[in-house]
Amino acid sequence: MNKFIDHTYLAPDCTSATVDRICAEAVASGFYAVCIPPFFVGQAARALSGTGVKLATVVAFPYGYAETAIKVQEIRRAMEEGADELDIVINIAAVKSQDWAYVTQDLTAVATTARLKGKVSKIIIEMSELTAVEKDRIIAICNDIKPTFVKTSTGTKGGATVEDVRYLRANLHPDIKIKASGGIRNKQSAQALIEAGADRIGTSSGLSII
After folding, report:
1. For an engineered disulfide with 164, which of 11, 62, 86, 127 has Cβ 3.0 to 4.6 Å away?
2. Catalytic residue list contains 117
3. What is the pTM of this model?
């Protein structure tokens, strides 16, 4: 189970001491990655150097409505400071505006920026906020662009559900992985999501889960 977990702390009260703790816990527990705010990427990269634990951070978190150029710059800066994986929030405002051309070019730009540097992109689509039509359109766009992962949620609006993960696995291209995140607090929940098709679990309760 530990190798499925992105050990996460994204609350606004995150401090330098919190990041040191999260990194130390991830190393001790053999978690796959840590996921921390962009402000702490350099610190976390130093703490994780040589440990084998990957470093993830978020981009345009939590609402995704930064302009594409800003997202791209945020990704580049995070990669320069040592991030291996970028959890990038889709532009929910563009989705709700039905501006599918913008959504497509936005996701293409951010996924390509990560891919060109050999980094992992995870597109956060906030499943709980989407209509059935919006889900279908976003999945179609992702199947064309092929980010590394599609991620269920930021965890700020709603948690991952087994139904969400099953839907994603049934409709996403087989090469696109799934990260479930939000409200995953025990081993039973994590196991159910993995069985439904999740390849990664984003949680702040990693120690409890294992």
Report:
1. 127
2. no
3. 0.97
